[in-house]
Amino acid sequence: MGWIESIQKALDYIEEHLLDDLTIENISWEANASAFHFQRTFTILTDISVGEYIRRRRLTLAAQEISSTNGKVIDLAYKYGYDTPEAFSKAFRRQHGVSPSEARKYMGKLKFYERLVIQVILKGEKPMKYNILERDSFQLIGIKQEFSLVNEGNLVGIPKLWEKVNADGTSDRLGQLNNGQIVGLLGVCVDKRAEEKNETMDYWIAAEYAGKVPEEFSTLMIPASKWVAFEVHGPMPDAIQKAWKQIFSEWFPTSGYEHAGTPELEVYSNDDASNPDYYSEIWIPIKKR
Prior knowledge:
Elements: H1 3-16, H2 24-30, H3 35-46, H4 50-68, H5 73-79, H6 85-96, H7 100-104, E1 130-135, E2 138-148, H8 153-167, H9 170-177, E3 185-191, E4 200-208, E5 218-222, E6 225-233, H10 238-255, E7 257-259, E8 264-268, E9 279-288
Antiparallel strand pairs: 1-6, 2-4, 2-5, 3-4, 3-8, 6-9, 7-9, 8-9
């Protein structure tokens, strides 16, 4: 099964169980992917998180039901996954701009979010510069933090971790120690699918390094892999976000490769990240389909 079909299977599962207690673990299982990789790919392709998509779809159905039935708001709140009518009304107003009672009186316009269907659009509007290479295993040193994938906790926590290491000098120290083939600071995502606790991931801020490891840092061995390394040009975070979208929507569908499932790397140079010509890279482990 290709990755497009896998994601669509997960979307169908969401729709079929929209009123159930959905978890990122169960949804990603349908796509035969780890929770982290499914969440990341979904957000790259759709520009919204899995949780936000589910909220939008539930509130779309809730609006249709409110405007066409006489069901009590409290019953609808529980039906669509809210603990209290107040929480439901607040979320309803945030999406639709009106309260449930106003919607019932046909006051205001409601927002309708259709179920997603994944399609590949081969635009090729900008060429991607990349090379494919093979490397033996290599060592990274750095710091790591575990993040929950529940309610997209990683999406909130990872930027804060970068703020911390940039402020306390950790990033400068890693830059000084960097002596490997990959030049720059690395953001490394390690999903934990193989472990019992599937709804967490480790995120590393690291550098490639060979030698005696300073006490303040931990080590991560990156397995021998075939890699595709993409050049990225432009200020952060927009440039790297656009590059990820182009990789998943244009390169992977026609490349004959798929993600190998081991850690991927974002490589950040030591220049000013706000510079229009800022250079970074995306390294993805790959295998033949």
